[in-house]
């Protein structure tokens, strides 16, 4: 039986592997030009030290923290008394991170659309007797950036930047946190 007459071209659905696509030049430029924000008492220090092989999963960098969640796009997610949402901005092509505490919105942070590729990760830590929220989101591989922010529980920003490297692990220090990058470099943020 000849079935060649029954074959019809199928429409192409999707574009391939998630995250493997390429962002437009404008989207990449916005991510690369996101200005670093640091409160005046926050200090950063970058070192080039080889990463110990403790954890290298770039999609679970807060795994060492007791309280951490993965927030999928358009899916409100709870962590204790906090609720996080990660949505597209209705005004421009950016991304909004919404954080609620006990039902009240405490934070609305706009970040470049390049960071809407996957999911937002959030963690709550205590440093020097004070609570902080850590938030992070990866871009597509072609853009090669990661957005990372540190906020107080009232939503006020201490630090936020578009980082040039992929973070594979975040650890807590007595006076801040350390970010370990896939390259082996690290960054210490003192609060």
The average pLDDT score comes to 80
Morphology: globular
Structural class call reads: mainly beta
The first-to-last residue Cα distance is: 74 Å
Radius of gyration: 19 Å
Q: What's the number of domains?
A: 1
Arrangement of strands in the largest sheet: 1-11-10-9-8-3
Strand content: over 45%
Sheet bearing the most strands, described? 6 strands, antiparallel
Unreliable spans: 6-20
Assembly category: single chain
Number of DSSP helical runs:
1
The run of helices and strands is HEEEEEEEEEEEEEE
Helical proportion, percent range: under 10%
How would you explain this protein's 3D organization?
With 191 residues, the chain is mainly beta. The protein has one domain (36-190). It is built from one helix and 14 strands. It has one helix at residues 25-32, and strands at 37-38, 43-48, 68-72, 77-79, 82-88, 95-101, 104-111, 119-127, 130-138, 146-151, 157-163, 167-173, 176-181, 185-190. The strands form three sheets. Strands 1-11-10-9-8-3 form a six-stranded antiparallel beta sheet, with no helix packed on it. It has a four-stranded antiparallel beta sheet with strand order 2-14-13-12, with no helix packed on it. Strands 4-5-6-7 form a four-stranded antiparallel beta sheet, with no helix packed on it. A hairpin with a 2-residue loop joins strand 4 and strand 5 (82-88). The longest helix has 8 residues, at 25-32. The radius of gyration is 19 Å and the shape is globular. 28% of the residues are buried. Residues 6-20 have low confidence and may be disordered.
